[in-house]
Amino acid sequence: LDTYNNLTLKTLMGLEWVSKHCPNASYVVKADRDVFLNLAYLVRQFLVPPKTNFMTGHLYQNTAPLRNKGSKWYVPHEVYPNKTYPPYCGGPAYVLSGDLAQKIYGVAQTLPVMNMEDVFMGICLRALGLGPTASPWGVYNMVRLEFERCRFSRLVMVHHYQPQELLRVWPSFQEAPATCHR
After folding, report:
1. Edge-to-edge strands of the sheet including 157-159?
2. What's the angle, vertex CA 64, arms to CA 63 and CA 70, rounded to 5?
3. Alpha helix (H) ranges present in 22-138?
4. In this structure, what is the dihedral angle of CA atoms 46, 51, 53, 56, given to the nearest 10 degrees?
5. Each residue's pLDDT tens digit, 112-159
């Protein structure tokens, strides 16, 4: 079922598809349906030249599992016994190098899957002896920002934009003056 608790499996299926059908991809982007994503800025500012063993997004460090059974993000001790998670990129959107997508998919087959997809990617990175790369502050926004063409031209991701809103703001974003794109 396409449910929040199965998001980890859905992401792993995507990584499997990439591994089998796009083994030479330079990068893979995982993005939720409710994000504004500025791929041109991402590529221009952060992905040239191509990198290996690379993952970036909004970086979380030293976060603790939520043990409240009423929380959407509840993780029992049996699923994850440690006091803090390894560093990971927030789930709304992150980018990883193509080689790392294949490595994460491979190591995931050896680990117990958990419902926190973004945390699980961090666990996979740790199992590989790697970690995510911090992005410049503010280019991955986990909170909604009101749309402003020039401001958004210098952002990679803004969370909490519904598909109908994206259809409305995208044409305006495409018309942003060249002076906005830096």
Report:
1. 35-37, 157-159, 140-141
2. 125
3. 39-46, 98-108, 117-127
4. 0
5. 999 999 999 999 999 999 999 999 999 999 999 999 999 999 999 999
Question: What are the backbone angles phi and psi of residue 91, rounded to the nearest 5°?
Answer: -65, -25
Please tell me whether residues 69 and 107 are part of one structural domain: yes
Whether 50 contacts 27, CB under 8 Å: yes
Q: 158: domain range?
A: 140-174
CA distance 167 to 156: 17
Residue 179 lies in a domain: no
pTM score of the predicted model: 0.93
Strands 35-37 and 157-159: antiparallel
R_g over Cα of the chain: 17
Determine, yes or no, domain membership for 148: yes
Please indicate, yes or no, whether residues 37 and 74 belong to a single structural domain of this protein. Answer: yes
How many CA atoms, within 13 angstroms, populate the side-chain half-sphere of residue 162? 2
